[in-house]
Amino acid sequence: MTDEVLKDSEQKMVKTVESFQMELTHIRTGRANPSLLDGIKVDYYGAEVPINQVASISIPEPRTIAIQPWEKGMAGKIEKAILKSDLGITPNNDGSFIRLNIPALTEERRKDLVRMVRKTAEDFRVSVRNIRRDANEQLRKAEKSSDISEDELKRTQSKVQDLTDKYVREIDNFLLDKEKEIMEGN
């Protein structure tokens, strides 16, 4: 019983940290990164598909994303999809090749991004703590119904707390790395 609770809690915490990492990849840092285009879908013969399924995406320079559609007719559709997105970047389309020049971030914008990243990190920390709370509730119920002893309850709650501390630390480490990346802005 206690092993199941620990295993389940750890799996949920790992997923939470992975989700936080994914969330961080979508935050623009002034550096070209293909993941900026991940959420953008383009119309391809009536189906909405990610840009990377209809074009090659490369980073020829630190602040440039190059998109080469596999079909010439897709360039206009990709350009429209980028313009409609909330990226805030105007694509340069020469008909067969699209370039996105990532502007340098202003100091004020960097500070806003850091605030946003910190808020996001706190939301994910809360998620990890909620997983701990749910695990502790399960354990208390098991102890009330005499499935586990009081000693086992305390021991397992301590292990759940250790897991919580570990994954909150991981979130904090990713947060520090992202803050550094934003403030350096290379």
Molecular structure report:
It is a single chain. Helix content is 58%, strand content 15%. Strands 3-4-6-5 form a four-stranded antiparallel beta sheet, with helices on one face. A two-stranded antiparallel sheet has the order 1-2. It is of the alpha+beta class. A hairpin with a 2-residue loop joins strand 1 (41-44) and strand 2. The longest helix is centred in the C-terminal third of the chain and has 38 residues, at 107-144. The protein folds into two domains: 2-26 and 106-184, Topoisomerase I, Chain A, domain 4 (Orthogonal Bundle), CATH 1.10.132; 34-101, Gyrase A, domain 2 (2-Layer Sandwich), CATH 3.30.1360.
Structure summary:
The chain is of the alpha+beta class. The protein has 4 helices and 6 strands.
